Every structure is written in C-alpha cells, then in structure tokens.
Amino acid sequence: MGIVDWIFVVGYFTIIGIIGYQTSKRIQTVKDYNVAGEKVTWTILFASLAASVLGGGASTGMAGNVYKDGYVFMFAFCAYGIASILIGYFIAPRLKAYKGAQTVGDIMERHYGKKAKLVTGILSVGLCTGIIGGQALALGTMLNVILDIPPIVGILIGMGSVILYTSFGGVMAVIQTDVVQFVLLGVILPLSLIIGLFAVGGTDTLIEKIPDVHFTLLGNWELATFIGLFVTFLLGEALIPPYTQRVFSSKDPETARKGYIISGFFSFGFFFITGSLGLIAYVLFPGIQTDNALPTIVKELLPVGVTGLAVAALLAVIMSTASSFLNATTVSFMRDIYPFLRRKKISDKQELFMGRVLTVVVGVASLIFAINVPSIIAALEYSYYLWAPTIVCPLVMGIMWRIRNAAAGICSIIVGAVITLVWTFALHEPFGLSGVVPGFIANAIAFFITFSLTKNKVAGKPANKVDKELLENDVI
C-alpha cells in the first residue's frame, strides 16, 4: 500500500475514535448506553442494521465460500435477508410494544418467567461472544493478507479499536460508526467488483473460466446440506440481541418495520457483490486460502488510494458487526444475568461503569475464541447452535401469539439444546444436515406438547397487561 492508502486507513480509525469519545460525553444514563434513548430514525436504523448484518461472514466469508463452492453458498446465505424481511414485517413492530424492554431476556421474562430470562441471558452472551470471535478472525485475516501484519496482531489492533469506542460510547457510538461504515461499504465494494471484472476481461470471460457447477442452485452440495445451512442462516441470527436492541432503540413501530425490511432487501445486493468478488478471485488467484479471496483482490487489483478506502471499508463492515455484538453482550449480561448475582441494588452510575468494564472483558474472551476456531463461517455456525434451536421458537410464540407459560419456555430450550448437541457432536451431523435443523424441530415440538399439557399455568406478566400494551401501540 502507498502513503495515500495508509492515510485513509489511519484516518478511518481516527474518525471512529473521535465518534466514540464525543458520544461518551453524551452518555448520562444506562438507557442512553443500552438503547440510545429510543430516538433512532428509520434511515439510521436501516444503515445500522445493514452495517451490522453485513459483517465478516457476509464479506470475507461470503467471497471465500463462493470461491470454493460457487453461488450455492450465496443462495443459502440469502436466508439472512429473507429472515430480516419477515421479521421486519411481522415481528419488529410488535417488539416496540414491550415498554422498558432492552434485551431479548426482558421479553422472555414477560412470557416465561425469571428463569427463562436468566437462561436467555446466558445464551445471549455465549452467542454474541462467539460471533464477535468470528469478526475478530476476519479482522486478523484482512490485516494479515493486505498489510502483512501477523493475524494475532491484526486481531489485537482491530478488536482493540472496537472495544475502545464501544465501551465508552455504548450503542449510540455503535450506531453512529455503523452509519460511517455503511457509507464506505456501499461505495467501495461495488467499485471493487467493477475493477475486478475489468481485470478478468469482462463478464463473459469470467463466466467462461468458471466451472458451470459454480452457477447452479446446489453446486456440488447434497440437498440436505443446502437445506441445513439455509435453515441455519435463516434462524441463526433471527431476533438475536444486537438486532432486537436496534428495534428497542428506534422511535416507534413503523420505524422498526421500515429499517428491518429495507436492510433485508439491501443484503441481497451486497451478497451478490461479495460472492461475485469470490469468483473473480477464483479466476485470478487460484490456490489461495478461501478466507483470503477478498483481501487478495483488495491488495492485488485496486489502485493506490482506492486500496486504502477498500481496506477501510472492509475493516468498517467487520468492526461494525463486532461492536454491535460486543455492546449487546454487555447489555444482556447486565440486564439478564447480573440481577440474579447481586445482593443489593446498585446506582445507575455504578451500572454504567460495570457495563464498560464488562465490554472489555467480553472483548478479550472473544479474542481467545477467535484464535481457536478454524474459519470465519465455522465461528458463526458454532454460535448459532446456541440460539436457533433454543430461543427462536418460544420467543416468536410469545411475541406473535402472546403465549405465557414458564414450563413450555424452559422445556423447549432444554430439549432443543440437547438434541442439537447430540446430533452435532455425538452423531456428527448425519446426512450432512446441520444440528440446528433437528434441534429447532425438537424445540418446537417440546414447546407445543408442554404448552398443551400446562397451558393454564401462566408465567411472567399477566396476559391482559401485555395485550393492552400491544393494542396501545397499534401492532395487533
């Protein structure tokens, strides 16, 4: 990279540092730190969601896996966008009806009791820590390939910046930096695709040099493998803490609806761009490691100046996801787990300080996880095992049909987790089917059976209280 490229990269880190510092001075309460005072507009919500969703998996991971397997991986990954659109239309507006809610655990408590809140908090922390690890690994890979920085050093540099501005600025800093990062990726990655197509010799030449199977729906995959991965991506990040936290930060139900739906449609175009960059790498740089496909294009093809902007954009999209999950982990712990550990009530100022300290602790734990996983996508898949087969079904049942039953909630979580673990680690995923699929099915069956047997035993807030809140917000 030339001096101009380094100026852009250093300038990017300087900007996000300034944002974190300036935002920290405006943080007065825990509510400001956790949900930005519930003042986020739909345009900001859209940009923040898009930047958070399109992280290391959707950029570096997408390009690498399309490089290896073809567009079949992109087709499976599009489940993310489908999930965002469905959640935006049916669920996101209803989330705003839960007055005072700041975490998924808060919602689970109202439908399934305090134990469900605690379990949800534990799973939320595990899920977010794992996904942060995937983003940290993507940062290390990016800086290693482009700047020849050792992966561990790259992880420390990238995650150090994330931890710094997230711990001081909370979700307000996260959302503001997301907007900057969204603008960068929205300009630079399409430009990178255009430059890559010129380097290959045009679209026709690219198609000629790529095996036909790379363009088919299933590629070389078995149908069960495709279905398993599609379902994993569809449910793996459905209503996870960072995205529900964005809804809680929004101004009203309509803001939440628009932000979610538009970000879902936007993701399809982004996936196509990063996946196509993987095919360009297949032609120009055969034999490289899969996760190196996108960084290699940035390093080898882009001109001086554009390279620096591209590095900043790719670091931005990864760091935005990492910061979102880092903040959500802290909020989930403080709201869902810590109340069960403390002996006396603490002040708002003390809780704010503890949240910032915990952000640093979680960031360090994620670094350790990142160093010990084989790939970015593997880190994401491992994390999804904690969420899709445990929380998604009872959470949706509670939000959409206002079910309140402690036994059904807890039982379904336990059954889903056990089946997923057995299918994945004892049976080693027969038929190539991800453990998320049988785990989710078992989770849903256990929920409905238990509910039918114990439906008169209501937990959490009384039904008429929740229904009244939903009606007041015009979402049912």
Explain what you see.
The chain is globular and about 70 Å long. The chain has 476 residues and is mainly α. It has 21 helices and no strands. Helix 1 packs parallel to helix 15 and helix 3 crosses helix 9.
Keywords:
single chain; 476 residues; mainly alpha; 0% strand
End-to-end separation in angstroms reads: 55 Å
Number of strands: 0
Strand content: under 5%
Low-confidence runs of at least 5 consecutive residues: 459-464, 469-476
- Report the total helices: 21
Brief summary of the model shown:
The chain has 476 residues and is mostly helical.
List the helices and strands and how they pair.
Blueprint: H1 3-24, H2 30-35, H3 42-53, H4 57-69, H5 71-77, H6 79-95, H7 104-112, H8 114-147, H9 151-200, H10 203-209, H11 223-236, H12 241-249, H13 253-284, H14 293-301, H15 306-341, H16 348-371, H17 376-384, H18 392-401, H19 406-426, H20 436-454, H21 463-472
Helix pairs in contact: 1-9, 1-15, 3-9, 3-12, 3-13, 3-15, 4-5, 4-13, 5-11, 5-13, 6-11, 6-13, 7-8, 7-18, 8-9, 8-14, 8-15, 8-16, 8-17, 9-13, 9-15, 9-16, 12-15, 13-14, 15-16, 19-20
